[in-house]
Specification:
Elements lengths: L12 H20 L5 H7 L10 H24 L1 H20 L4 H29 L2 H32 L3 H21 L14 H13 L1 H31 L6 H26 L1 H25 L4 H27 L6 H25 L6 H21 L21
Helix pairs in contact: 1-5, 1-6, 1-7, 3-4, 3-5, 3-13, 4-5, 4-7, 5-13, 6-10, 6-12, 8-13, 9-12, 9-13, 9-14, 10-11, 10-12, 11-12, 11-14
């Protein structure tokens, strides 16, 4: 049984936040650092259809979605730290294996395995934070984590581009492996076990199914969980086709890393702002306001795709604003969906991460594969995803927006044996 060391007696909340951010940043690096390398990877892996290179991202996300179901129950039984260490070291090995993939088929298998192992970073970061905080306090920490995490998309394509200046695209995977090893050493030396002994849950399929059932049947948890996945799907649709849009639509392939950074700065700033205002105004008020803005900007994107289809400045302004809204939506929706589940944080986080990632990866792949040399598919995707997410929020809140409930819904007790 793991021993529980309160964070304030060991590494402190600030270092914990930075550590958790670094772990999540490994996943962002695994997606964004390789975007500038897409043309070289198309040639190097012998692809005849350029859109297929997007599956390098989609298959990784599919792995993280499926892997999310594994690590919550394991960490609820054996503790957060040992499972995290095994997964981070495994992801380093898988990343190294990707650098040696001889063809596209082997690359896809290795990327799936990489995602399967990297899933632990997303699930267990949320579980560790939920072990220590709840409600708006949790939302603040999660927003701070997402802020640090979002620095990576700002610089990751530039890192990838720098690697390409001096070496081949395979070295990008070697670099990711080295960073994972460094993170594992930090976790081993400094992270205490945050799972309290009284919250240890044996791995029993029946009890696990009951935990998932409680999540699904909780109106707010289910709605906000699905809504978060859908809005993130719009973001993944943009990520999948981002390099192609800069190259084929705007004839600005050399500007890609700068343009990508500009858009990423928007979501980083929104996460920073959210971390400062969410405890004052509440996660619901902030995220719902952002969602309405997200829809309005999506409509403007669609108009711009029709009347100014090749204007890079308009594209950057609207997309930066819309991606920024995801900074307010993602962490707050996730915090609302997790609030009732302190007693089964691992299982709940696992299941919710699986649903969010599966939805986002599927929608992102669908949107990305629609790329036809225009920005219309991405603009249409943002608007549709926003409208569906709003419908879910209205269902959760029974038609009332901008509320701030003082308590969470009571939940049935889930047996531990």
């Amino acid at each position: 049984m793991p021993t529980h060391s309160p964070v304030n007696e060991s590494i402190g909340p600030r270092e914990l936040t930075v550590m958790m951010s670094s772990l999540m940043a490994l996943n962002a690096l695994a997606i964004d650092a390789m975007l500038p390398a897409f043309p070289a990877m198309v040639r190097g892996l012998g692809l005849s259809e350029p859109n297929h290179i997007q599956y390098i991202i989609s298959i990784f996300l599919a792995g993280t979605g499926i892997g999310a179901l594994i690590y919550g129950p394991l960490s609820d039984r054996y503790g957060r730290k040992p499972i995290l260490l095994i997964a981070v070291m495994g992801s380093a090995i898988a990343s190294l294996a990707c650098s040696f993939a001889p063809d596209f088929e082997i690359m896809m298998i290795m990327r799936f395995v990489h995602g399967l192992l990297a899933a632990a970073m997303g699930v267990l970061v949320i579980s560790v934070i939920r072990d220590q905080f709840e409600g708006d306090a949790m939302a603040r920490r999660m927003s701070t984590i997402f802020l640090i995490f979002m620095i990576v998309p700002i610089i990751a394509p530039t890192i990838g581009q720098l690697v390409l200046f001096f070496a081949g695209w395979r070295v990008i995977f070697d670099l990711m492996a080295c960073m994972a090893v460094a993170a594992a050493i930090w976790v081993y030396l400094r992270l205490p076990e945050t799972l309290a002994p009284e919250n240890v849950i044996p791995i029993q399929p029946k009890a696990l199914a009951k935990a998932w059932k409680v999540v699904v049947l909780n109106r707010n948890a289910a709605g906000y969980m699905i809504g978060a996945g859908i809005t993130q799907g719009a973001l993944f649709g943009y990520l999948n086709s981002s390099q192609q849009m800069f190259d084929k639509v705007f004839n600005a392939a050399d500007f890609f890393t700068i343009g990508f950074a500009i858009i990423a700065i928007g979501i980083a700033m929104s996460n920073f702002t959210n971390s400062r205002i969410v405890e004052r105004f509440g996660a619901r008020r902030v995220s719902q306001t952002a969602l309405l803005t997200f829809i309005a900007l999506g409509a403007l994107q669609l108009l711009a795709a029709r009347f100014a289809p090749t204007s890079l400045p308009i594209f950057l302004i609207l997309l930066t604003g819309n991606v920024a809204m995801i900074g307010f939506i993602g962490s707050n929706f996730s915090s609302i969906a997790m609030s009732p589940f302190g007693h089964v944080a691992g299982a709940a986080s696992s299941f919710q991460t699986f649903v969010r990632t599966a939805l986002a990866a599927s929608l992102g792949a669908i949107i990305g594969q629609q790329f036809d040399g225009t920005v219309y598919p991405v603009a249409f995707g943002f608007l549709c995803c926003g409208l569906v997410a709003l419908s879910l929020v209205l269902w959760c809140e029974k038609g009332k927006l901008f509320t701030r409930p003082g308590t969470t819904q009571p939940l049935p007790v889930i047996p531990r044996n």
